[in-house]
Amino acid sequence: MTDVTSNRLADLTAVSAQLRADRAVRAKRAAMLKHVFLIAASFVMIYPLLWMVASSLKPNNEIFGQLGLIPSDPQWSNYTSGWNALPVSFTNFFWNSAVVTVLSVIGNVISCSFAAYAFARLEFSGKTIWFALMMMTLMIPYHVVLIPQYLTFLQLGWVNTYLPLVVPRFLASDAFFIFLMIQFFRQLPRELDEAAMIDGCSPFKIYWAIILPLSLPAMTTAAIFSFIWTWEDFLGPLVYLNDIKDYTVPLALRMFLSQDSVSEFGQMFAMSVLSILPIILFFVIFQRFIIRGIAMSGMK
Amino acid sequence: MTGMSIRSKLRRSWPGYVFLTPWLIGFFLLSIFPILASLYLAFTDYDAVNAPVWVGFENFQYMFEFDYRFWQSLKVTFLFVILSVPAKLIFALIVAMLLDKGIRAVGWYRALFYLPSILGGSIAVAILWRQLFNADGVINSALAVFGIQGPYWLSDPNYSLYTLVVLAIWQFGSPMLIFLAGLRAIPQDLYEAAEIDAATPSRKFFAITVPMLAPVIFFNLVLQMIEAFKSFSGAFIISGGTGAPLDSLLFFTVYLFNEAFSYFRMGYASALGWVLLVIIAAFTAIAFWTSKYWVHYENERG
Amino acid sequence: MSTFNRRKFLGTAAAAAGSAAILSATGTSAFAQDRRIRHFWWGNPERDKRTFEVIRLFNEKNPGIVVAGETLGSADYFTRLTTQIAGRNMADAIQMGYGVMFEYINRGAILPLDEYIGKSLDISQIDESALSAGRVDGKLYALSIGANSHVSLYNTRLFDAAGISFDPFGWTYDDLKRVAGEVTKATGVFGTDDNTADYQNFSDYVHQRGERLFDDEGNFGASAETIADYFAIWADLRAAGATPPGQVSAGLVGAELSNWGIVTGQTAISYAWSNQMVGVQNLMQDKVGAAMFPNTPEMIPGSIIQPSQFICLSRDTVDAEAATTYMSAFVNDPEMTAVLGLERGIPANAQVRAALQPKLTEIEATSVAFFDGIQGKTMNLAPPPPSGAQEIEAMFERVAVAVLLDQAPIPDVANQIRREAEGIRRRAR
């Protein structure tokens, strides 16, 4: 190593130190601005939740007459009475929702990543046609296939069970997730597969040991969506579950409202607040897995 | 010769089909019958009570020649797609980029920004929306502080659709999250290299972020477009299920739902559904065709 | 282990928590040889509890028959029902509303009850008016489970503050203009909701004018003149400042009762079905009063007493005899009807009404007093509405909004309504 190069190295270090310092100042200022913007925007985002919580503490005759958020006399009892307001308790509904949702998330992530891997990284004849058909299932308006779908499940003897809600998830029925994963899988460098192939890895090994671990952000995103959408789905449970004991939370919530008699709004809001807690919890826990793909940039 | 090529094709294809098996089973067991059945019903008079009666193209003829509400629903839906999709995507991308870097407590921010999308499905929020946008609701009360007299957001047909567009943009959580995941997949060393080249932020955005994010942008564009064409809940809830006032919120699927489930015209509704399917498919095909020019995938680079 | 089948495993992850009463009410404890029937209704927490209790009582009293209850909110009821009809999988006994029920009868989704009368079905104590409401072409299709009528609900505090006096069972639209004006002046609250686009009020007015909503052939019978006059009444009130601005009212057409003027405190009068009284009172702090809909000076009756809800036998019933036994008990059995109370409306069985009298809440008593007051002042029930009537109602409420928003002259809107009604009828045939 000569002096010239070491000098240049020293120069470079100095320059980059200066750059880093500049960046720090700029970053601080930008961060401040960002914070102000984000806090203001946050209020717009959180207002509905505040309103829901406020309404859940009001008696029925105060929810619609007044606009103010603060209840005159907080009715914590809306939570206890709401929990048992329906002929079956909410313990049931939450448990049912949990069973359906957890199974659906597992089913979606496994089966959709299978299909996505095939579409994104493997060559096979007829691929274009299958892909087009898959996209078509995404485009058809749901209400048009509702009745034929019901007839199918009726034929199978699955109506009034959780099977119509869960089994399709294990058969990659939701093209949204397949397409989402395809887009992420296609981003991974091709050299990965090639190198692995030369090392004698089977496609299954590549899927399991390379593609899946490198796609953690996409998998997490899919799991989060899958959780939220299944948890909130009511059209499926509405059509397929007859027995009130089997109802999921969203279906139960809709039972509070009545057009021709007493609607228990306070209790409905209380249970609505509780019903979104699992979603927020799931989100906050799992969103941290949407991380940078360190391994990947190292491999390039 | 042919035998050889078939065998080699098979050898090449079988891993793909193995991975596709769950989807294929689902498609043939659960999806294909409902799709074909709805296509058949589009050519029938079917009230869901009695057996369908074949009527040929009558449903489509009525739709195109006589049904002015069909055209109205198309107009409303196209306007909604054009207004809401680009705005929602841009907004989602901006927020995702803000959240991507350098902020502590970012997990909570993310949850906050996702909140409207979580709440969007709740019946409680449907009630809130009406309260917010009422003539003397929270929004107009806030505007009044600044001396602005707000319009009748939901009951004036000149404003109702725009109000719904705003609500749609407000629920930007899912494209935001997908953008965020996409941003996280961009190798950080590209930015570091650009930093040393003293690239401006806008240069970094257009030279690194956009091309690297293109597959995800494409995904969000296609999916948001499809979702917007099929958009149902918001308009259904806010208009009390009817598309009121004066059909200004008559989204295509709201019209379709009423034809099918309120007025015993499942056959006609199926015809409507297939027209929408064709429209969506055409736009999606266009999007895929243009994507050749602006979306490049890692594993397809020479 | 043989009983631990797939259905139990996947279907009832829930069995842990339900009370024994509910379990038996939803049919879990049935024996194989039991005759099993299903009852499907739309409800709310209160109605659901009462109905499951009724089912429990019935199952207890009728060994050998097991009724399973199925319930949903009214917003979702018909979506599931339509799906089940298509799948030929309806419950045995289903709840129906006046109006839409005739569409289902015309199409053959509901079975006549005549062959069970005097056997499994007892109708001897049921009011003739309630029975005739469930008849089509001389056949009985439905049992009323609660009578209903149109009612003007007013805020008694505001009326007292303005010193209003009026005859709640014989007031005219001129009285309404006076009353609403006085309330507005004295309290600053708008006197009344704007009913321009309210089909129920409109249909009363058509009959008050001596016309019919539908003639014998099922043609739309309201003349353009009558439609225009109806709009003019409300246009006057609006111009006088006795209603909220048209643009506000346009947003409230067909709104759920939580949005009504009387509930939000924006107006002093809202218009309802009488079985909605309890629900409105529940959302309000001021006391609610009840009056008939206003009339013309000629006082031709326009309101009707009609069943709000029916219980019907579906074409998919697996055991019509068991189902009709249950339906019969639902409207006659003293214990069961005592549990149901007035929750679905005024019962059609005179003995049941008498038995309920002493146990009424204040607002229920108001509604019963209202019913007593309107006796003899209502018109006979018109023949069942023709196919397409539901759609015409929705069309009216959609098109009439143009008047509220001042987007078209009244005569034009009146003519459009007649044209559209004719189109709908043609398509429905």
TrEMBL record, chain C:
InterPro entries xref list: Bact_solute-bd_prot1 (IPR050490), SBP (IPR006059), TAT_signal (IPR006311)
Coiled-coil region: none
Signal peptide: 1-32
UniProt-annotated location(s): Periplasm
Keyword Signal annotated: yes
Family: Belongs to the bacterial solute-binding protein 1 family.
Protein name (database record): Extracellular solute-binding protein
Naturally occurring in which organism (per UniProt): Devosia neptuniae
Upper lineage: Bacteria, Pseudomonadati, Pseudomonadota, Alphaproteobacteria, Hyphomicrobiales
